[in-house]
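FORM 12-B: Structure-to-Sequence Request
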């Protein structure tokens, strides 16, 4: 029984880590995109760079951590019940 509990706690920790990183990257990406839009009329190079970095962060948060890591785990939990 202790092995089962440690397996479940390890899976829960991995899930929470992926969830935290997905939310963190998504929030950082949105913030960078908004900052890029605000500075577009002043400094175009900075606005383009922050928009590019924001797009990369949004991709990492939504696609890599959200779609490729969290979604399959959620589906496997739902299918096992």
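FORM 12-B RESPONSE
SEQUENCE OUT:
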């Amino acid at each position: 029984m202790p092995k089962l509990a440690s397996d479940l706690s390890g899976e829960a920790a991995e899930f929470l880590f992926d969830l935290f990183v997905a939310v963190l990257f998504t929030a950082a990406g949105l913030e960078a995109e908004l900052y890029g839009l605000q500075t577009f009329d002043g400094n175009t190079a900075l606005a383009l760079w922050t928009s590019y970095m924001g797009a990369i962060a949004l991709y990492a948060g939504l696609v890599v951590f959200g779609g490729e890591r969290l979604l399959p785990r959620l589906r496997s939990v739902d299918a096992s019940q």
